[in-house]
Amino acid sequence: MVNVVLGLGTAIILGSLIILGIKAFYPEPVAPAYPGPSAAYPAQPCVTGDVKCQQQQADAYKADQAAQTQFNTLQQAYGDQMKVYNKNLFIIANVIGIIVFIFGFWLLFATAIAAASVPIGIMVAGLWSIIYGYM
Fold first, then answer.
1. CA distance readout (Å), 6 to 45, 75, 91
2. Maximum average pLDDT range among 33-37, 87-91, 111-115
3. Burial level of 24, CB count in 10 A (0-12/13-18/19+)?
4. Residues 113, 116, 117, CA angle at the centre, nearest 5°?
5. Which residue, of 38, 58, 59, 104, has the greatest Cβ tally within 10 A?
6. What is the pLDDT of residue 1?
7. Could you give the angle at which helices 117-134 and 2-25 cross, rounded to 10 degrees?
């Protein structure tokens, strides 16, 4: 029972450390904030024939459209950045996962550790990193 807990604890701690390390040294791009509606709209609906009120509404609508267009451009750039980030994250997580898995496999057979739970936990952490890269 102690070996299972030791192996599971090693896998969780090392797997979390790998993921946090990747996020610390290769942060995710930040999504743009949505601008929200313009505050320039009149407080109440325009009365028929009120040209000034209708002009305010038209100007506010144009400002909102410009803000939406700018947001769409920023959102497209963010999407492009995320494609590159996800590709690089896949490669980084898989390389680290394979290295950690091989190290755990080597520890399992090359060292004289009484319990094999720690190397197996290291191997599971390596597999966890590979799975994280695929997610």
1. 68, 45, 29
2. 87-91
3. exposed
4. 120
5. 104
6. 74
7. 40
What CA–CA distance (Å, rounded) separates 96 from 66? 44
pLDDT tens digits along 56-106:
888 888 888 888 899 999 999 999 999 999 999 999 999 999 999 998 888
Tell me the H-state helices in the chain: 2-25, 51-110, 117-134
Encode 64-94 in three state secondary structure. HHHHHHHHHHHHHHHHHHHHHHHHHHHHHHH
> Whole-number mean pLDDT of the chain?
86
Angle at 92 between CA 128 and CA 98, to 5 degrees: 50
| Under 8 Å between Cβ of 117 and 9 | no
| Sequence-ordered list of residues with C-beta below 8 angstroms from that of 34, at least 6 positions apart, any chain | 71
Q: CA 38 to CA 26: how far, in whole Å?
A: 36
